[in-house]
Amino acid sequence: MFKLFKFTALLEGVSLLILLFIAMPLKYIWGDPLAVKYVGMAHGLLFIAYVIFAIMLKDERNWDLKRTALILLASVVPFGTFYAEKKLF
C-alpha cells in the first residue's frame, strides 16, 4: 500500500502543478475554462486519495502526529508532495 501511496503522491503533486501553472492561466488569462474543469476534477480525486492513504498509513507505519500533519500539509503546497517524498517518507 505504501508504493501506491507514493505513486498517488507523485500524481497529486503533478496535478497540482498542472492546475496552478497551466490550467489556471488558460482560464484566467486566455478565457478557456475547460482545462480547469478536467484537471481540477482529477486533482480533487487524487487529493482525496492522498489524504485517505496518509490516514491509513499513519497507523501502519507508526507515524506520529507531527509527521502525519506535515505529510497532509504537503498536499496543499506546490511541490510539497515532492519534498515529503524525499524527507518524510
Poorly predicted segments: none
Structural class: mainly alpha
Biggest beta sheet attributes: none
Q: What is the global morphology?
A: elongated
Sheet-strand content, in percent, reads under 5%
Radius of gyration: 14 Å
Helix content: over 70%
Count of alpha and pi helical runs: 4
Q: For the record, give the distance between the C-alpha atoms at the N and C termini, rounded to a whole number.
A: 13 Å
Structurally, the number of domains stands at: 1
The strand count comes to 0
SSE run: HHHH
Mean pLDDT: 92
Give an overview in words:
The protein has 89 residues and is mainly alpha-helical. It has one domain. Helices cover 81% and strands 0% of the residues. It has four helices and no strands. It has helices spanning 2-28, 34-60, 65-74, 80-87. The longest helix is centred in the N-terminal third of the chain and has 27 residues, at 2-28. It is elongated, with a radius of gyration of 14 Å.
Give the secondary structure arrangement, pairings included:
Elements: H1 2-28, H2 34-60, H3 65-74, H4 80-87
Helix pairs in contact: 1-2, 1-4, 2-3, 3-4
A few lines on this structure:
By secondary structure, the chain is mostly helical. It has one domain (2-87).
